[in-house]
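tokens incoming
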């Protein structure tokens, strides 16, 4: 298996805002935003032994895959990547009054995270999917997490020679051009 040589750098900050409502035992509510932006580079590693292919008769397409993808070795990159990565973490918290002499209790309400990247080295489809996740703190034995992924690009159907739809492929056309922002 081949190792990729990559470099990465990142800049991050934290912004806080809050209110002190003093309503129903809530002494304060705080919103913490931690945006980060970074750059990463991964070179193209063409190795004919690392990649192989087969013909899929259902889709009538040649499918290429990395021989190392299932052995925990990862996928050997076939294209250069030069990514501008972004990540925005939003945390919502509150402080609940415990009494006159006991310090207020800090309670996490919700954490939301948005991530993605832009690949300067790609010739098309330069924006990655946008990943959004929401998480609540554990409440007893329950913990709620919602993960979603959106693409900014349009998908079109793949049709075989019999006229059957056998899948979809992404094309380099923004959904915003058709009045939608994400899909």
């Amino acid at each position: 298996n081949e190792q990729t040589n990559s470099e990465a750098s990142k800049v991050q900050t934290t912004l806080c805002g809050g209110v002190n409502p003093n309503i129903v035992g809530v002494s304060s509510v705080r919103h913490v935003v931690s945006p980060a932006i970074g750059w990463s580079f991964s070179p193209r590693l063409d190795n004919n032994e690392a990649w192989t292919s087969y013909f899929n008769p259902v889709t009538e397409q040649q499918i290429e895959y990395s021989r190392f993808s299932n052995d925990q070795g990862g996928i050997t990159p076939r294209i250069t990547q030069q990514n501008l990565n972004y990540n925005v973490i939003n945390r919502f918290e509150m402080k609940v009054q415990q009494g006159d002499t006991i310090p207020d209790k800090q309670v996490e309400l919700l954490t939301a995270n948005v991530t993605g990247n832009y690949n300067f080295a790609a010739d098309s489809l330069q924006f990655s999917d946008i990943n959004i996740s929401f998480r609540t703190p554990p409440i007893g034995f329950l913990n709620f997490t919602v993960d979603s992924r959106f693409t900014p690009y349009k998908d079109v159907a793949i049709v075989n020679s019999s006229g059957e739809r056998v899948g979809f492929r992404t094309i380099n056309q923004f959904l915003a051009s058709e009045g939608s922002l994400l899909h």
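note: Confidence is low (pLDDT under 50) at residues 1-5.
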